[in-house]
Amino acid sequence: MTVLGDATPRSLTRAVVDRVRPLRFDLMPEPVRRTAVHCVLDVVGVAVVGSTTPPATLVRAEMFDERSSGPAGVVGDPRRLPAAAAALVNGTAAHALDFDDVSAAMGGHPSTVVLPAALAAAERHGLDGPEMLAAFVAGVETACLVGRLMGPEHYARGFHTTATVGAVGAAATAAHAAALDEDGWCRALGIAATRAAGLKSMFGTMTKPLHAGFAAETGVRAASLAARGFTAHRDVLGAEQGFREVLGGTGVLPPEGAFDILDVLFKRHASCFLTHSSVEGLLRLREQGLRADEVEAVRLRVPPGHLRVCAIPDPTTPLEAKFSLRHTAALALVTGDLSERSFTAESPADPRLAAVRERVDIVARADDSPATEVRVRRRHGPELVAEVDVSVPDPATPSELDRREVVLRRKLLGLVEPHVGADRTARMLTAIEGLPTARTLDDLRAAVAV
C-alpha cells in the first residue's frame, strides 16, 4: 500500500511508467514498428466511414458548436479543433462501426482510443511520424499493462474496459507526446484514472462509441493538466481506494520484455468481437455446402461472459444487431456477409434473417474454454459441428506481417473507397504507410479530412 503522494520504487504506477516512458520508435523491434502502422491502417479506415454515422456526426456537431478552432485535425471534416475535442470526435468515429482492433491483454479496443489521442497530442506538440508512432505504442502498451492489472473481474462487473483502461492508455500516449517527466506521467495517469468510466449496459447504443471518444479526450486533457503542474495521487494504480482496488482489479504485471501490441487482433467482421468465433464456425460450415434453408436448429455453446455482452435476442437497430449472437449467426448462414453494409436499418426486420434467428439457441459452456462450439441440426443429413476460437493471435513473423498488411489494405480500400473515391483513398494509404519516415502529420491530416 502507498500513501498519498508516495512515489517510491514500490509504486505500481511508476512500475508501469518506467516500462513505457523510454520507448522510441527507432529502437523498437521491426515487428512492433510494422504492427503500429497496421493499427493505424485499421483505425483510419473504420474512422473515416465511422465519421459518417449518427454517433460521430452528433458529437462532431456538438464540439464545433461550442469549441473554437485548434491545432488538431478531425476525421471527415476539413476544420480543426483543440486537441482534447478532436480526440473526442475522432475516438467516437473510430469506434462507431465496432470494426476496430481488440486486445485480450487490455480486455478491450486499444487503438480506437489511443490513436485519436496520439494524433491530437502529436499535432498539438508538432511531432513527426516516428514520434507519433512511438507515443501510440507507449499508449497501447500502457493500456495492455493496466488491463492485465485489472484482469477479467473488472469487465465482468460491467465496466467497459475500452472506456476505463483506455483512458489511462490515452493519458500515457499524450504524456509521451508531451515529453513529460516521470512525475508528470504519474500525475497524468492519476488524473485520467479518476475520470475513467464506461458501462457495458450501453452496448448496442450510441454511447458505446462515445466511450472511446470520452477516453481519448480524457487522456489528452489529463496530460495537458499534468504538464501545467496539476496534482494527483502519484500511484493511482496501486493506492488504497485507487483505480485497481476500487474497480475490481485482480491481475498482476507480467514480466518485462514482451510487447502486447504484437498480440492485437484485427476484426474481419463489423460486429462485436465476441460474435466472431460463432460467425467463423458457421461460415466454415457454409463453405462446406451448408444452406440456410436446410437448417432446423443452431446451438451456439459460448463462454459464459458472452451472454452478458452480445446476446441481444431480437435486435431492432443496426447497433443492437452488432451485439446479437443470434442475428450475426443468421447473417453468416443467410448471406455469408458481415461487412458494414450488412448492418442496415432494415437488416433486423429482414424476414429471411428473422426466420433463421428464431432457430438459434445460445447456451453457456460449462468449461473454461474460450472457444465457441457451433452445432447445426439439418432437416436432412447428419448434424454439423465446428469449434472456433478467434482470440489466438497470429505469429509476428515477416510472412505473417506481410499477409496481414495485405488484408488490412483491402479492408481499408473496401471501407473507404466507396465513400471518398480511389484517388483520396490512395493518398490515405500513402500517408499512413509513410508515417515511419514522415517529418510532419500534414499529409495524413489532409487525407482523412474528407
TrEMBL record:
Residues 20-249 form the MmgE/PrpD N-terminal domain. It comes from the Bacteria. Residues 269-426 form the MmgE/PrpD C-terminal domain. InterPro entries: MmgE/PrpD_sf (IPR036148), MmgE/PrpD_sf_1 (IPR042183), MmgE/PrpD_sf_2 (IPR042188), MmgE_PrpD (IPR005656), MmgE_PrpD_C (IPR045337), MmgE_PrpD_N (IPR045336). Pfam families: MmgE_PrpD_C, MmgE_PrpD_N. Belongs to the PrpD family. This is MmgE/PrpD family protein. It comes from Pseudonocardia xishanensis. The lineage of its organism: Bacteria, Bacillati, Actinomycetota, Actinomycetes, Pseudonocardiales.
